[in-house]
Amino acid sequence: MADPTRAHFQSRLGFILAAAGSAVGLGNLWKFPYITGMNGGGAFVLIYLLAILLVGLPIMLGEVLLGRMAATSVIGAFRRLTGAPTPWSIFGVLGVLAGVIILSYYSVVAGWSLHYLRLTLDGALAAGDPKALADAFAALYADGATNVLWHAVFMAVTALIVARGVQKGVERAAKVMMPVLLIILAAMLVYATTLDSFARAFDFVFGMHTAALTPAGVLEALGHAFFTLSLGMGAMLTYGSYLSRRDDLVAASIATAVLDTLVALMACLVLFPITFAAGMAPASGPGLVFINMPIAFAQLPGGPLWSALFFTLLFFAALTSAISLLEVVAAYLIDERRWSRPRAVALLALLIFVLGIPSALSGSDDATFGAQVHWLGERNWFDTFDYLASNWLLPLGGLGIAAFCAWRLGDRQRRSAFAEGSPLGAFTPFYLSWLLLLRYLVPIAILLVMAHALGLL
Ligand code: PHE
């Protein structure tokens, strides 16, 4: 079954960095802080942490395991593992669909990091006036042409890297960018702890502010656990398929989840002290990172340098995630349809670029397409895609992956694959707890939260 010519990662570290590169992204640095702010902090963070530990991590292990066992991408994996065409493959199709949808708007936000890099280099952020910075973000959001331009640039860069292949493109990009990202973030955190507002921010993030939590917030916390760990659409499955059998997949998956969670919490502990110190509201929405970080940079010695570094990192973080999104979809065409890699990547990048245009136009005034579409309540195109993908498609995909792994795979086969190369995986109580979570808690939690969100409960 194993195909010796199939691409694989060079090392376990390569896998961890690529998987962490996929997981750590705009979800951690941009989205998590802002949804935490909008949901009132504390209680939301607790639900999110529980969702990571009890739902996300078990699915992550299952996904990487399925990928390594099947040694193929997400749609084919189910068929390969059952040995015949199977309805389970629908979850693979959903995953590929989710990848296309997510990347189409993700790339627009990633483009903002490039725009801010440019503003930094032009000296346009140096004054650090909160009002002017808020206006600058609003202006960017409303400027359709600029958004489309950066979206195009970002998609092109992503495509160029993915076209180079698994080792030379995906793995190497992550190996360079991830360590730099961690160092910069740690340095920012040290600075944030020196601010008087650090204690207040710490309480906002870790204190119990239950009053602000709503059922929609619980759905969002769960959805975000999927989004931030890149689960439910086959990214981890595809990366798992490039992981060698000798490598300890349990340890690697845990390391990935821990790293991702640390980065998200660090991002909050950097952003909120700055937000409070500037006298701004934590619930200011998608502009949080783009308005508040420049405020802090303006007050720092060497501010423009920090600012340039930070937006470069935001760009790197987005890039390694975008690479994984594109890789999932491309791997399907390469593995199943026998397309050449450059051809698959070029075509998909073009398609996703076009699909992302309405998202890039979503902030423009109402005359424009993306802003005018209101499929789901008051959401424009951009928000609709984000809402559908992270709150519905990913949890649904995760449900399918969990159910397949926990109920459909044979126990002997699953157990030996789990233990391969892994002392913890071979430890029976660990294996059984994982299986129990995957069998019962994971599906029940996902279904309950969804039923509630649909008003059925
Ligand atoms: N995990 C990425 C982030 O936090 C986003 C992502 C989702 C990437 C799904 C791949 C798959 O930014």
Give a description of the structure:
- With 457 residues, the protein is mostly helical.
- 76% of the residues lie in helices and 0% in strands.
- It has helices at 12-23, 26-38, 42-70, 74-82, 89-121, 130-142, 144-163, 166-193, 198-206, 215-228, 235-241, 249-277, 288-299, 303-336, 341-360, 369-372, 381-408, 411-419, 428-453.
- It is globular, with a radius of gyration of 21 Å.
- Residues 22-23, 25-28, 102, 227-228, 230, 233, 235, 321, 324-325 line the site of phenylalanine.
- Phenylalanine binds next to α1, α2, α10 and α14.
Q: Which labels suit this protein?
A:
single chain, 457 residues, globular, binds phenylalanine, 76% helix, mainly alpha, Amino acid/polyamine transporter I
Count the domains: 1
**What gross morphology would you assign?**
globular
Q: Return residue spans where pLDDT drops below 50 for at least 5 consecutive residues.
A: none
What distance separates the N and C termini? 45 Å
Whole-number mean pLDDT: 89
Which CATH architecture is right?
Up-down Bundle
Please write the CATH class name.
Mainly Alpha
The CATH topology is Amino acid/polyamine transporter I
Helix share, percent:
over 70%
The sequence of SSEs as H and E is HHHHHHHHHHHHHHHHHHH
Beta-strand content estimate: under 5%
Global Rg: 21 Å
Described by strand count, sense and barrel closure, the largest sheet is:
none
